[in-house]
Amino acid sequence: MADDYYSVLGVDKGADDAAIKKAYRKLAMKYHPDRNPDDKVAEEKFKEVGEAYEVLSNPDKRAAYDRLGHEAFKNGGMGGAGGAGGFGGFTDPMDIFAQFFGGMGGFGGFGGGGRRQADPRQPGADLRQYLRISLEEAAHGCERKLKVERRVACDACGATGSKDGKEGFKVCQTCHGSGVVTRQSGFFVQQSTCPTCRGTGHTVSNPCSKCRGEGRVRKVEEVELRIPAGVDTGVSMRVAGKGDAGLHGGENGDLYVELEVAEHDIFTREGMDLYISMPISLLDATRGGAVSVPTLDGPTKLKIPAGTAGGTTFRVRGQGMPALRGNGRGDLMVGVMVETPSGLNSKQMKALESFFATLDEDNLPEIRDFAKHAARYLK
Fold this sequence. Notes:
Layout: H1 5-9, H2 17-31, H3 40-56, H4 59-68, H5 93-100, E1 127-133, H6 135-140, E2 142-153, E3 169-171, E4 180-185, E5 188-193, E6 202-204, E7 216-227, E8 236-239, E9 255-261, E10 268-270, E11 273-281, H7 282-287, E12 289-293, E13 300-304, E14 313-316, E15 332-339, H8 346-357, H9 365-374
Parallel strand pairs: 1-9, 11-15
Antiparallel strand pairs: 2-7, 3-6, 4-5, 8-9, 10-11, 12-13, 14-15
Helix pairs in contact: 2-3, 3-5
């Protein structure tokens, strides 16, 4: 067991989390094996500092330690057992350091080699593209061909990046295989992608002249996309393997196509239902009858009852949008507007006046009822 954990970190027993983190940062940087190669004393100190931080940064473990001291962690107490072997049942101090400083166990690019090396084969990036389709295409489904600029495997070197087509990787001398470089400024540690190997941890000894050692080149390709019926704006479709090719033969990324359904000049969409505002004549509204209504599948007949008022909405079942997944379709909602004749000539106007002269108040019930309610305001 290590000495008193508070003494190891050089803090008081009442130290808060910030003080404990500050002390650990300073001592971990001081005793890290990469800064002290072949120094057994520094290595042991690094282990003690990690063990002390693991306990004092955990509220439950710290409370147990304050009550029982080191006895709290004997025989795997407080869940300490099960960590990496050789560290008294505690977590590997290099892993604690890596977690604290953001995933890096060493000081690649700062003065020594990291303990983990990056894989030269890196997966390709996912790509995103936007596609606008018509409402008809969204309703019936369609196939579209997209031109996508992506990185593809270099045919000159077989994606190896090497001029002779053989994998000639060597560990990057800048980051020592870690893929990142770390620089310290006071207590702060800054990490960035290694500029030499671009994060792969390796360089190619005999780079291909076509791809410059990446194993991939840019190319515009045609990608076929099958769009199912029922899609709506915001739906994202994944085309597996059609993103960028991986670095040095790594796995391809995917292509994500985000759809936008264009506005229609007749139909308005709300979910699976379609809405249409359709004018009808005064005659059709008065006498009723069947009128022809447009749908995305062709015209259909709608029965208009006699005396239909403007603003009345009728439902045509099954003439909306299909479900994207599953069965069924939405409905078409037809709102009728009664159009008032305009631009009448004198003959037409006289005929209209003669017609209205034959009407009584029962033929115009809304005007009659309004007049009754508003009579006291019209005197």
